[in-house]
Specification:
0% strand; mainly alpha; 3 helices; elongated
């Protein structure tokens, strides 16, 4: 029985977290939402480039990835 109560509590917490996130999005203007999506896309791209840089062995490929990383950092600072 405790298990059932626990899962219901988790379910309620998830619903509350979802509704809070939705309310926050509702308060944002379309321009703010677009800017946040752009920042998130830049962060994901940066994370991917860093992962690739960790395993890259070819010097030219590393140079390209380092340049891409620097560019992403500049774009993130502008946001």
């Amino acid at each position: 029985m405790a298990r059932g109560w626990e899962s219901k509590s988790v379910e309620q917490q998830q619903e509350m977290a979802t509704s809070d996130a939705e309310q926050t999005k509702l308060r944002m203007t379309p321009a703010e939402i677009a800017a946040e999506k752009r920042r998130e896309a830049l962060r994901l791209s940066r994370r991917r480039v860093v992962q690739q840089l960790e395993v890259a062995t070819n010097p030219r490929h590393r140079d390209m990835l380092e340049a891409a990383l620097a560019d992403l950092d500049v774009q993130l600072e502008k946001q």
